[in-house]
Amino acid sequence: MLPEKATLWTAVKRGLQRKCPACGEGRAFRAYLKIVDQCDHCQTPLGLYPCDDGPAYITMLLVGHIVIGPLFALDFFWKYPLGIVIPITLVALGLLTLVVLPFVKGGFLGLIWHHGLRQRR
């Protein structure tokens, strides 16, 4: 039995929590970035919704603006040598990207689930 269609905001919010966008109860991921084939609670076929490249681009855009923009305003960026600033910045970008990506992918899953943009098999 499929649950009643959630609103766009509800579906995205459930996805951001890494839950099924349809019911909000089941897990949407079985691993770090691997989406389950179907929700274990409502049997919604989540594996049919392609969200491979979009979340990566959105994550890079968000993390780039969160880290790089403010970095130019900080004093240490201009005072320390590039041999110190660049490795610190790259590590911060990498870690923040790895932390944010699963949540963005969940939100993206909620977005495309709500709009019914699934693969044809």
Automatic annotation (TrEMBL):
The chain crosses the membrane at residues 56-78, 84-113. Keywords: Membrane, Transmembrane, Transmembrane helix. It comes from the Bacteria. This is DUF983 domain-containing protein. It comes from Asticcacaulis aquaticus.
